[in-house]
Amino acid sequence: MLTTTDTVPLTRPPDSAALRRAAAPLTVTVDDEVRARVVRGRRFFHTARHGNGGGSGGGDRRIYGATTGFGALAGFAGRADEADQCDNTLAHLGAGQGPDLPPGIVRAALLLRTASLARGFSGVSVEVVERLAAMFATTFCPAVPRYGSVGASGDLIPLAYATQALRGRGHAYLDGHRTEAAAALAGAGLRPLALDGRDALALVNGTSVTTAATALARDAVRAAHRSLTALTCLLADVLGCDPGFLDADLMRAYGHPGAVDVAAHMRRTLTGTAPSGTRPLQEPYSIRCAPQLLGAAEDALRYVDGVVAADLGGVSDNPLFFPGGAGEGATGEGGTAAAGKVVHGGNFFGQPAAFAADVLASVTAQLGNLAERQLDLLVDPARNGGLPPMLATTPGTQHGLQGVQLATTAFVAEIRRAAAPAGMQSLPTNLHIQDVVPFGTQAALRSHDMAELLGLLCGSLALGLRQAVYVGARRPTAPRCAELLDALSEVVPPVDPDRPLDADVRAAADLLATPGLLATSGPPATSDSPATSAPPATRDRP
């Protein structure tokens, strides 16, 4: 069993960095504070469930999923045996189809689910939280089909598959190999979870898959945004562009905070650049309007940041249990706030993440357009300052970036096809109990897929910039741009002679996503001192 010293405490909500780390083994800690609040919530659930407190009269009281059926059948009684009610919760949700979700998304979703349950408002047993936390120290990962969630009553179907795997049913991965869930649990040194109806419902009745996929997609798009900001600077430098399109007064007059910050960042990156004096008075929009485009993307990503932060820190479940003294305001069905309350509501409704993922899709599509157009500019001898077509060393006998450019066109077409908003395409279901749904799961998973293609577009552009210098463009004159080119040159050899470039594109994309690589550009500059010129360095063309 693999372990790691990386630690995520459940005392506070996880951040997206913790979600990324959850793809590999890590230590998730349950301290006394967490145990106390989970135990308190569980005790209150039992008090409210059996009607001997919490402001209710004698006899069992109605609590959704504990005493009732589910969804449209909530008006009927559930199974009397609490353990049997677990099967009543999960069995009918085994209706998912399609390929398995990436294990990184599944484990991130389970980390979010564990963190939500650890807040103490779901009425689950402390053993459930502790056993979930223990899973993360292993490579165990449930096999979860992609299709089946509408993101309205939580990610019911995908989380049901995850829960069943934790019970030893269905399939799971261990050390990357797909096998029977019971065998995977045994191989990981884990015991199957034993659940009652409340535990089971709390495990499935949240938006954890949607939130995890949105957060991971947001991180990938932010990484691509940083990459494109740096690559645009490198493009401007190797072509000898005048950086006047980044002028601080110009950007302040524009008035958009994201554009002001991005332009300041780009000015810092281009410090030391020496314009060639041979470029047109006004560059194409893919250069001249890049700070406006990237700035608008930054403003949109800040909105997504806020939604992700709220979802990571929130509790998505139904009903919620507020023990005495913990609730505020109006009385719930369970009695007064002082006595505690049980509240049935809609905190499993993934509309915020659906809207955020749709915004993320729009940002991804336009960033993809920018990367593809910049590569097109770079391979076109009519616009690239006289470099050979397709950046081929000997055009005709060599074809340089021709195949890469064809692939980027396909990537952009795929991104555009997928960019249609999902968060407002509601379809009623479940006998109209779910008469309006957000489709947040579809929006989030779609954005996650698009972000991967955007990373490949960035890698393709980076490969083009590395090749451009090899076939005759000047070396960057800005030190930070030169550092980026040198890093690319270490992982991507010149295209001479032609060779398959798929691995090179991935290598460049992976390099750009390396933490800290682009940090040399620093945060937006606080002053706008004139850049000092530096003489151009020698080219690396043999």
Short characterization:
This protein is mostly helical. It is built from 18 helices and nine strands.
Task: Offer a few descriptive terms.
18 helices; disordered N terminus; 542 residues; 49% helix; mainly alpha; 9 strands; single chain; elongated
Question: How would you portray this structure in words?
Answer:
This protein is mainly α and 542 residues long. It is 49% helix and 6% strand. The chain is built from 18 helices and 9 strands. A 3-stranded antiparallel beta sheet has the order 4-6-7. β1 (7-9), α1 (16-21) and β2 (27-29) form a beta-alpha-beta unit. α9 packs parallel to α14 (351-379), α9 packs parallel to α16 (440-470) and α14 (351-379) runs parallel beside α16 (440-470). The chain starts with 6 loop residues before the first strand and ends in a 30-residue tail after the last helix.
Helices and strands in order, then pairings?
Layout: E1 7-9, H1 16-21, E2 27-29, H2 32-50, H3 82-90, E3 97-100, H4 103-117, H5 126-135, E4 141-142, E5 145-147, H6 156-166, E6 171-174, E7 177-180, H7 181-188, H8 197-204, H9 208-239, H10 248-254, H11 257-269, H12 285-288, H13 290-313, E8 320-323, E9 340-343, H14 351-379, H15 402-418, H16 440-470, H17 479-491, H18 502-512
Parallel strand pairs: 1-2
Antiparallel strand pairs: 3-5, 4-6, 6-7, 8-9
Helix pairs in contact: 3-8, 4-9, 9-11, 9-13, 9-14, 9-16, 9-17, 10-11, 11-13, 13-14, 14-15, 14-16, 15-16, 16-18
